Every structure is written in structure tokens, then in C-alpha cells.
Amino acid sequence: MGSGTGAPPTPEQLQDLLLESPGFTDFLLGLTTISATFLGSSEPMLCAITVERDGTPATVASSGADARRLDEKQYAFDDGPCLTALRHGTSVLVPDVANDDRWEHYASAVSGEGIKAVLAVPIATDPGAAAALNCYARTSGVFDEATVAEVERHAASISRILRLALKVHPPEIYPEHLRSALKSRAIVDAAVALIMIQNRCSRERAMELLHLAARATDTRLHTIATDILQGASLPSPKPPA
User: Fold this and answer.
1) InterPro entries, alphabetically (predicted)?
2) Which of 24, 34, 215, 222 has a beta carbon 3.0–4.6 Å from 169's, enabling a disulfide?
3) Are 186 and 50 in contact (CB under 8 A)?
4) How many helices (H) and strands (E) does the chain have?
5) What is the pTM of this model?
């Protein structure tokens, strides 16, 4: 990666973003896009910003579909570099995903997406909330000392506007059934990613295998997915009678 190609966002630009965003999710998406553009070199970096507030599901904004899938995998396991940075307030660097044993299943899932390294940096917030900036790299050796320092400086520079946004936009209250649905979807997505790796198949084929296993064993899709994430093998479909 290295230094971004453009100047860092000015306080005025960040204030305009907050004023023009109709909701917190829209603001966070804009802030993530700005971060990805600034931190990227020839092209934007894969970035995501995660915010947790007491009593509500996390709000995650991703710079693209690839980054969104990577973050959904992390939340399915309820553990990983970004969540560690967010919950403990310290930067987390995974220089080589393939050889990292701190988050074995998560590492396997993101490796299947072609990710070589991950950097997660906390963003300071007021009490009652926590946030982190997550950056993904498809090549090794990207997050050197200078780059880590640059990402940490950027995270510090957007802390103030994020704190303002949290005050301006109240938390969205999700019904309990919707919370469960969101978590269930993330678990299924993570299981699909592992099936893709284990069977060297497409996402569509992995989803088909998961549904076949659920029907063959008369088990809920969420239960099968949870078992797979915990190390179980994919049940084989029953042969036709």
C-alpha cells in the first residue's frame, strides 16, 4: 500500500459529510469510502468501519462488497482482529493470515477470499460506544511500520467527527427477532465460505451443498452452519431412494 495518493480529508469535508448524511449508516459509509480512498495507493484499499453501541447490533460500513463479506465472516465467529481492536482499544496486525493461529477459522475464511494481511485500528469514541477501522490487503508485506502509523493517524483524525455523528444520530433499535436474523445470516455466510475452501467450489455450489445437507438431515440451515464453523464435517446428502 503505502501513502494514499490524495490529501487527508479536511475537518470541513468531514463536517459536510455529517451534515449531508440522512442517517448514521449513510454517514459511516461515506467515512469508510473516504478512508479507503485516502489510504489506498493506485486504487482504494479494502476498508470497513465497525461501531458498537450499548444495546444495539453493530453498525458496519464497508468500502465495497469484498470488504463487506470479510466483515460478515468476522461477526459470524464473534471474534477476529477488528472486534479485538474495537473491544480492547488496541491496534491488531495480522501480517500473514495463512500462518496466524489466533483466529484459526476466521483466518481460513478470509484466506479463501484472497486476503493475505489484516490491520485493525481502534477509533476513540465516548463512553457507551466503541469503533474500529479494519483494513485488508491482498498482498503480503503491505502493513509495514510506516503504513501502520499512517492508518493509526487517520483513525485518530476521524475520531472527533465520529463522536459527533454518534451524538447527532441516535442508535437504531432493532427488534429481537431482527437481531437474531442478522446474526443467523452472518453465520450461514461464514459457513459457506468454509465450504468453498474445503471443496474448492463456487459460492453458489457451496450454498447448494449446505441446503442439501440441511434437507438430508432434516436440520435447520443455521444449525448445520454453526456445526461446520465449530469443526464438523458437511453431512453427505442421502442417495436417492
Assistant:
1) ANTAR, GAF, GAF-like_dom_sf, GAF_ANTAR, WH-like_DNA-bd_sf
2) 24
3) no
4) 10, 5
5) 0.69
Residue 190 has pLDDT above 70, yes or no: no
Those residues with Cβ within 8 angstroms of residue 171's Cβ, 6 or more apart along the chain or in another chain: 53, 55, 56
3-state secondary structure of 2: coil
Q: How many residues does the chain have?
A: 241
Q: Of 82, 73, 50, which Cα lies nearest the Cα of 63?
A: 50
What CATH number belongs to 176-229? Answer: 1.10.10.10
- Which CATH architecture group holds 11-168? 2-Layer Sandwich (3.30)
Calpha distance 235→213 (Å, rounded): 5
> Exposed, middle or buried: residue 101 (CB in 10 Å: 0-12, 13-18, 19+)?
exposed
Query: Reduced to 3 DSSP states, what percent helix, strand and coil does the chain have, rounded to the nearest 5?
Result: 55, 15, 35
Output the DSSP codes for 141-176. Answer: T-S-HHHHHHHHHHHHHTHHHHHHHHHHSPPPPPPH
Closest CA to 228 of 206, 195, 199: 195
The 10s digit of each residue's pLDDT in 140-185 is 888 999 999 999 999 999 999 999 999 998 776 554 444 455 556 6
Please identify which residue in the block is written with the cell numbers 470479510: 70
Query: How far apart are the C-alpha atoms of 44 and 229, rounded to whole Å?
Result: 31
List CB contacts of 177: < 8 A, sequence separation 6 or more: none
Q: For 4-17, write each residue's pLDDT tens digit.
A: 445 688 888 899 88
Separation of CA 224 from chain center = 23
Asked which of 73-87, 108-122, 137-151, 165-179 is least confident by mean pLDDT, the reply is 165-179
